[in-house]
Amino acid sequence: MKCVIIEDEKPAAEKLISLLALSNQQVYVEAVLGSINEAMEWLQHHPTPELIFMDIELTDGLSFKIFEQFNIECPVIFTTAYDEYWQEAFEHNSIDYLLKPIKPEKLDAALNKYHKLKQHFTANYQSLSQWPATQPQTGFKKRFLVKRGTDYISIKAEEVAYFYATHKLVCMVDSSGQKFIMDQSLADIETQVDPAAFYRVNRKYLVNMSAIKRIKAYPKSKLLLEVVPLVTEDIIISQENAAAFKQWMGQ
């Protein structure tokens, strides 16, 4: 198994490499990358590894920024000394969250989880690939029950303009501009809505196609999205996600 380590502390990276060498899995470390910039440079010029071990607090910022620039498709095991990032970590391909100092048994459990997931999806790939393209998709959420004051109200999915994450909260904004706090993560909501109608444009916004007012070119081949109701910040679609987004818009 080929992996990459993103870690800015040399002793921590060396310790992880030694633990991997003693683990019950055959792991080959392709690269040790010490910053966000170094990681993005490497990912731009190399094939995606099978697994990434990623520290969160790096010298040039939080490693979550990497996901804004690259569509990382492989699983990630986060390794950090802090426990406050676990929820955001599991919105970014995370299959485990290991606290430093990493214990050998925790690392082995994480590697075993990776292999079990790999075996599961490999075994089911053939049946998934043979699923009829015309098969109607069902089971998507049609309504969301939200709270307003002491009352609960039901909002139709098509009336939702977008969902967004802010300060460890997730909010829904409907087409009339009303805002409601959700009790689910953005990643969970993404799995519940119809992907033909909603698109995760970046790590912060999940947008309904009907709410998109304008798409503008942005420097470095990115896109700038304007939505209604309006937001006070720029909604940027990364270069790596731009092509998939435009394909989705034209489906």
UniProtKB/TrEMBL annotation:
<dbReference type="Pfam" id="PF04397">
    <property type="entry name" value="LytTR"/>
</dbReference>
<dbReference type="Pfam" id="PF00072">
    <property type="entry name" value="Response_reg"/>
</dbReference>
<protein>
    <recommendedName>
        <fullName>DNA-binding response regulator</fullName>
    </recommendedName>
</protein>
<dbReference type="InterPro" id="IPR007492">
    <property type="entry name" value="LytTR_DNA-bd_dom"/>
</dbReference>
<dbReference type="InterPro" id="IPR046947">
    <property type="entry name" value="LytR-like"/>
</dbReference>
<feature type="domain" description="HTH LytTR-type">
    <location>
        <begin position="144"/>
        <end position="251"/>
    </location>
</feature>
<dbReference type="InterPro" id="IPR001789">
    <property type="entry name" value="Sig_transdc_resp-reg_receiver"/>
</dbReference>
<feature type="modified residue" description="4-aspartylphosphate">
    <location>
        <position position="55"/>
    </location>
</feature>
<keyword id="KW-0597">Phosphoprotein</keyword>
<dbReference type="GO" id="GO:0003677">
    <property type="term" value="F:DNA binding"/>
</dbReference>
<dbReference type="GO" id="GO:0000156">
    <property type="term" value="F:phosphorelay response regulator activity"/>
</dbReference>
<feature type="domain" description="Response regulatory">
    <location>
        <begin position="2"/>
        <end position="115"/>
    </location>
</feature>
<dbReference type="InterPro" id="IPR011006">
    <property type="entry name" value="CheY-like_superfamily"/>
</dbReference>
